[in-house]
Design a protein that fits this description.
The protein contains 8 helices and 7 strands, in the order E-H-E-H-E-H-E-H-E-H-E-H-H-H-E. By secondary structure, the protein is an alpha/beta fold. A 7-stranded parallel sheet has the order 3-2-1-4-5-6-7, with helices on both faces.
């Protein structure tokens, strides 16, 4: 089933006149989310470090998008540049209604193999950047009477994943931050987390390579170990995850607030 064609699960006007700002949009789940929201009629601003990848994605999306598609380059580890980028977005493109906080995770390996310095960059581009961006955009969402904030994090929020110690720690912090905000934000603004499982992205390949280097396990052994945890016995398509993210951005999702939704093929064992 092609989720961007015959299998598209939403109305082509479901997000018309809504402006989505998506970070980490150049590849993987971020890129899939940009495609899905554009197909649903949103104006989409895609942000990442790699301008060439963003421009290629924009050209692809413009073949079917009905809203305005824009790219912005940003390095989320450079917090002093984020406000300037947001100034350009708000001045040139108008208020943001949908914010997708997303960034690449840290390398794999046991937690105690990391020193304190290893925590700095991942926490900066995830938690610190998300907080700075959210503080800046929520007044505009409140003024517009509409806000949807979605974090793309990990199922490790619920169950730590072996050999991803630093990533597990980071994702838990992001989830707690979002849950705290769900009790504080204006009623018109929702905030939720999507927890991808083992998803067919470059990130998964890089994690396998990182674990291989740190533990000596073969790539095949690592993949078999992952698939042994997933009842659907396959990787999740990034567009499947993007469909869940897009649903949480819709007007109909206004009563869903402060949840962490797993899109993991049944990997999580808890209720």
């Amino acid at each position: 089933m092609d989720l961007l064609r015959d299998g598209f699960p939403f109305s082509r006007s479901a997000l018309t006149d809504k402006h989505a700002l998506i970070f980490g949009a150049s590849k993987g789940i971020g890129a899939a989310t940009a495609k899905m929201m554009a197909m649903a009629g949103a104006n989409v601003t895609m942000c990442a470090r790699n301008e060439d990848s963003l421009n290629q994605l924009m050209a692809e999306i413009n073949e079917y998008a009905t809203g305005k598609i824009t790219v912005m380059t940003v390095d989320l580890e450079q917090l002093n540049t984020i406000d300037e980028m947001l100034d350009r977005v708000l001045s040139n493109l108008g208020p943001v209604h949908i914010l997708v906080n997303n960034s690449g995770g840290p390398p794999g390996g046991p937690l105690l193999d990391n020193n304190i310095e290893d925590f700095h960059a991942p926490f900066t581009r995830h938690l610190h950047a998300a907080h700075q961006i959210t503080r800046r955009l929520t007044p505009g969402m409140e003024a517009e009477g509409y806000g949807r904030i979605i974090q793309i994090i990990s199922t490790s929020v619920k169950e730590p994943i072996p050999n991803l110690g630093l990533s597990n720690t980071l994702r838990g912090a992001m989830a707690s931050w979002a849950k705290s905000l769900s009790r504080e934000l204006h009623p018109c603004i929702t905030i939720n987390n999507v927890l991808p499982g083992f998803t067919d992205t470059e990130r998964l390949d890089s994690l396998a390579n990182s674990i291989n280097q740190k533990t000596g396990k073969s790539i095949d052994e690592i993949h078999q170990g992952w698939m042994g945890q997933v009842p659907i016995e396959r990787l999740v398509d990034p567009l499947e995850t993007a469909a869940a993210i897009t649903y949480l951005a819709l007007p109909i999702s206004g009563a869903i607030r402060g949840v962490s939704l797993a899109v993991d093929g049944g990997r999580l064992r808890g209720i």
